[in-house]
Amino acid sequence: MAKKKRKDGLTYSTEEGPVANNPFSTLSGLTDLPEVPIIPADDKEGEDAGAGTRGEEQSGGYAARQKKERANSSVRVRLDRKYRRGKEVTIVEGVPGTPEELERLATLLKTKCGVGGSVKDGLLIIQGNKRDRVIELLLGEGFRDVKKAGG
Questions:
Q1: What is the mean predicted confidence (pLDDT) over 84-92?
Q2: Chain-centroid distance, C-alpha 34
Q3: HSE-up (13 A, CA, CB side) for residue 22
Q4: What span, in angstroms and rounded, lies between the C-alpha atoms of 146 and 151?
Q5: How far apart are CA 57 and CA 62, in angstroms?
Q6: What's the pLDDT at 55?
Q7: E strand or H helix that includes residue 133
Q8: Percentage of the chain modeled with pLDDT above 90
Q9: How far is the C-alpha of 136 from the C-alpha of 107, rounded, in Å?
Q10: Which residues, at least 6 apart from 130, have a Cβ–Cβ distance to it below 8 Å?
Q11: What's the pTM?
């Protein structure tokens, strides 16, 4: 029964045993809890509803379509200073996908480049002159036709 005193004045015990203020200790005394239904893992109803051609299209078909779109898209990466008081931004245009996919890609680029940015009107805007790094990252993500545009 060793008790120690902390710097803030509180004492605590170092012995092993039941914890005095355990919130789960009251649950062990409850015996009139309702029965929880157990659903077997090999239940066929759940499989039939989500399986079949629709489920396969959503998983494999979507990834294949996205991969094909990335390979066939023409992505251009350019540097821009207009209306930004001389500050440079890297603009990525021609990226196919939904706004959610563009946000995900922008987040990846911003994280890997260590800068800020945004998505506006289908353009990915990355702060600073990061054209080479962005091109390298886009090629790594599966885009095939990625080129510098402008100067």
A1: 91
A2: 38
A3: 9
A4: 15
A5: 6
A6: 46
A7: helix 131-140
A8: 31
A9: 15
A10: 90, 109, 113, 115
A11: 0.56
